[in-house]
Specification:
121 residues
Length: 121
């Protein structure tokens, strides 16, 4: 099994992850409002992870605001963050192995913990 090596690998990871999330009856309602502009949403996610992994400068902006807005209409509970992370970790482990795969899991955990703490403290 190979590591995450380029943008195409990031796209594969994100697309496979979202196929699981959108099929999850507890998580899919959180993402349904984004379906109206799905290409823009996933492009930002691709850019986010590509930038973290390969320092491309492809992502600008913050993520906290959008999560705070979504929390207003669909509370982002600790349980939902845990489900989100379980899908992310599972998808990464199914597709990749290596330092970049480990990095996207540890970074997702870190980000999830920060957002969860801000929304659920």
């Amino acid at each position: 099994m190979k590591d995450i090596e380029n943008r195409e690998d990031v796209i594969r990871l994100v697309d496979n992850f979202y196929s699981k999330v959108l099929a999850d009856p507890e998580l899919s309602p959180v993402f349904e409002p984004s379906l109206n502009d799905w290409p823009r949403h996933v492009e930002r996610v691709y850019n986010f992870w590509e930038n973290w992994l390969f320092q491309t400068g492809s992502y600008n902006g913050g993520m906290m605001w959008v999560h705070m807005q979504r929390n207003q209409t669909h509370p982002l509970t600790t349980a939902l963050f845990e489900r989100w992370l379980a899908h992310w970790f599972g998808t990464a482990d199914e597709l990749f192995k290596g330092k970049n795969a480990d990095f996207v899991k540890s970074k997702a955990l870190e980000i999830g913990q920060i957002i969860n703490a801000k929304l659920n403290s």
